[in-house]
Amino acid sequence: MATCSGGGVRRRRWSILALDAAQPFDKEGQAIDVFERRGRLKIAIIGFGKFGQFLAKTFARQGHTLLAHSRSDYSAAAASLGAAFFSDPHDLCEQHPDVVLLSTSILSTAPVLRALPIQRLRRNTLFADVLSVKEFPKSLFLKHLPPHFDVLCTHPMFGPESGKDGWEGLPLVFEKVRIGDTGERAERCQRFLDIFHHEGCRMVEMSCSEHDANAAESQFLTHTVGRLLAKLDLKTTPVNTKGYEALLKLVEITCSDSFELYNGLFMYNKNSTELLERLDLAFDSLKKELFGKLHDVVRKQLFESSP
């Protein structure tokens, strides 16, 4: 009996020691959990169409709380991603999101922003956008938002097609337009940017004006050439070259986006008009070069064949 009793005491001692040894690890786990909770954001996505839902999938996977609002009823799509859908923007703003992210079309951004009941938001809410032009939303934010709201302009230079297999190496252009100087507000802005950094995006900090100057060539020109080729109604052939297949792919990619997006790239990037003029001049110059050489060949043939 004494032996059994002693064994029971020893077993209880070992249990207590094991429990004590586990305490530091439990505290460490709790600390990690608190850190992760603090790292999560409550993000309101205004404009929950194709691109808004594309971003929401990654936001949700990283554990952020999502709110959604759109003119169309995307409540089923929102529910499938674990997001709460609000048809009334007043109800959404009363949820006090950390970040209000505009994912609207370029053409509808101004009326959507003006219609938001921003008085229902917390005074230091972070406003961000993902539009393909940057000077336009920057000026809108600065014009319509009181100075106690933070402003971050971003452009993920990829979409549901190019980013379907992950965002590794894809560029995220951003400008911290107006971020409060308190640690909490700077940290919140960084946590939002960290969503993209965590996915492996190439983070490119650039002014909005510099972005638009570069995007006119890298984006608007690409869309223009793709839509121009689409007007030719190109078809695949039995003798496709790699270059021709690349052109067909360009038509497919650019025309999968709405004409509204393309029109927005033209209307709201002041560099686009100049680029179109340069494109016209380049095409005229190329035609003159070709017809000039043709003229020389014809003249040579005419004079050489003369008696």
TrEMBL record:
ATP-binding among keywords: no
An annotated GO BP: tyrosine biosynthetic process
Secretion signal span: none
Family annotation (Gene3D superfamilies): NAD(P)-binding Rossmann-like Domain (3.40.50.720)
Membrane-traversing stretches: none
Keywords, ordered alphabetically: Oxidoreductase
InterPro entries, per database record: Arogenate_DH_2, NAD(P)-bd_dom_sf, PDH_N, Prephen_DH, TYRAAT1/2, TYRAAT2_C
GO molecular function: arogenate dehydrogenase (NADP+) activity; NAD+ binding; prephenate dehydrogenase (NAD+) activity; prephenate dehydrogenase (NADP+) activity
Domain (Prephenate/arogenate dehydrogenase) ranges: 41-307
Family matches, as Pfam families: PDH_N, TYRAAT1_C
Protein name: Prephenate/arogenate dehydrogenase domain-containing protein
